[in-house]
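Here is one such protein, fold included:

. . .
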Amino acid sequence: MFVSGPAASQTSSDAPHKMIPAGMGLQFFLVTALFFFWGMPNNLNDVLIRQFMTSFAINRFRAGLVQSAFYLGYFVLAIPAALLMRKYGYKFGFVAGLLLFGAGAILFWPAAVVDRYWFFLAALFVIAAGLSFLETASNPYVAQMGDPASAARRLNFAQAFNPLGAISGVLIGTVFIFSGIELKPAQVSAMKLAGTYRAYLRHETMRVVTPYLVIGTVVLLWAFLIAITKFPRIESEHEGEAGGHGHIIELLRQPNFLFAVLAQFMYVGAQVCTWSYFIQYIQETAHQPEKTAGYILTGTLFAFGLGRFSSTEIMRRVRPDRLMGLYAVINVGLVAVGVLFPGWIGIGSIFLTSFFMSVMYPTIFALGIEGLGPNTKIAGSFIVMSIVGGGVLTPVMGWVSQLTHSIALSYLIPLGCYIVIAFYSYVGHRMGKPRAGINLAAEV
């Protein structure tokens, strides 16, 4: 939670604090929409994993490299994004991120034309590079654009639009990318003998092009709208000015920040692992077709969105760290049920984890940058870098499922992640808290 001093321990006293500053409604709308936009490619990846397993005839481990390429973009670009925004400001980050996002989406067209898996991975890397700019800029900007006492609520509200983008992404993928054709081994053999199998794979690959071209066009339009809109800046926006330059070495002395990076790594790993293999979990344990599984995945994203919106109100009465800790413990139990009771009981349990995981990303982010003064932007970039957990743990989960021949047992990976998040909620974020705060500067 991005507060300082006594405000961090308040429960109901946040209520009088205005969430959106006067005169900043348009800017808040434009930036909040970015949370929606980056939710779409994040969860279209869950569809792409299944689609590429079909169109490129690859196994779960290689398909999991979709997430590795994607989250590598976050990891590589987060620090450069922070350094550029230190010089040019948050608005530069918004526009640069959207331009990269749009360019990566449009690259899906030539990738499909040349029909190369590595080209798609490169396009996903470019998209993620753009999202790295957007997340490095948007999260701290929203947290700091108003009253510090309402920062966690404001960031949770903005983040609540992320699952709406995620839902849209999965629906787009399920409706427009999945063909609904699931060939039996005998049918594959027959098509190979007839010489039609290659054409079938080519058709499946081309199905990804149109959705990404439309998304790329909309994103580039939004970049133009932000470019022509005047944005206020906050005190930490140009951190090198007036002796306000922060130092990475100072961050390394902040246990709260270090634990936040670890917790965010684990959270994103848990989220991406859960959703990336949920379609396959449903197919393997309940023997449902991929389109049905895709719609169930969409349902769990609705639960995620409900959790985000409800947490904004719950935090008026319950401290964010305590709420996150409770939700983490609940998810440990739910994932354990999914591991031990595969089938519809397990599906229901994994489904519910999305509601309880929803509060974690924005709360960890807000807690992690609390009181870091001129180090805020660079700290935010490190927390964004930790998103690489989704790229590291997802192929690991795929490897575990292949090794054990059980998708259910592989869910032990997100279970372990929630244990770490629970520890951070109750213990880690309290260690070595800095005393400094960040205030809103005059509008320019």
